[in-house]
Amino acid sequence: MQPEEFIKSVFAGNPPQAERLWITRELNEDIRRILERDLGMMRLRYWQRDGRTAWILEEVGKEKPITTGWVVNDSGIEQLEVLIFRESRGWEIRYPFFTDQFKGLQLKQNLELDGHIDAISGATLSRNAMLKLSRLALFLHDRVTGQ
Q1: What is the pTM of this model?
Q2: Domain housing 59
Q3: How would you write the pLDDT of the chain (147 residues) with one tens digit per residue?
Q4: At a CB cut-off of 8 Å and minimum separation 6, what does 145 contact?
């Protein structure tokens, strides 16, 4: 699924106007704590309506970026889709048996998830990338909604 299609599907074919979150020095410090690296961009697009935010985020698994779509509401992660998977291994993370584990998870004050995500043999780096992105999506949601 292409990112544009994901955003349309999240908002029933009528997505709101994309907003931009400027990555300040302070914000980048928190992002660095989550990703263990700088985000590498000055602003990040997101979509928001009725207490829900949608994000298109990327993280490298082993060698190549994994493009994901996240929907977060006030009760946690609502939806996760692996949109573009470019790695040769670890593709199992795109299936519901893995992605469904994230539903309802929230971020604790220490920027860790409040639940456990099972490992997948042969997909450790892809799983780790998804863990980082889930924490980032929740953190960014809290930031833009004032939580």
Answers
A1: 0.95
A2: 3-145
A3: 899 999 999 999 999 999 999 999 999 999 999 999 998 899 999 999 999 999 999 999 999 999 999 999 998 999 999 999 999 899 999 999 999 999 999 999 999 999 999 999 989 999 999 999 999 999 999 999 987
A4: 48, 51, 53, 74
* Ramachandran sector of residue 22 (left: φ over 0; alpha: ψ -120 to 50; beta: rest): beta
How would you class 107 by CB atoms within 10 Å of its CB: exposed for 0-12, middle for 13-18, buried for 19 or more? buried
Q: Which residue has the tokens 């961009």?
A: 41
Whole-angstrom distance, CA of residue 40 vs CA of residue 115: 28
Q: How far is CA 83 from CA 57, 89, 99, 116, in A?
A: 10, 16, 12, 23
DSSP state letters, 71-117 = EEETTEEEEEEEEEE--SS-GGGGSHHHHGGGTT--B-TTS-BSS--
Q: Which structure tokens are listed for 117?
A: 């995500």
Q: Kindly report the CA angle at 97 between 72 and 6, in degrees rounded to 5?
A: 40
Total structural domains in the chain?
1
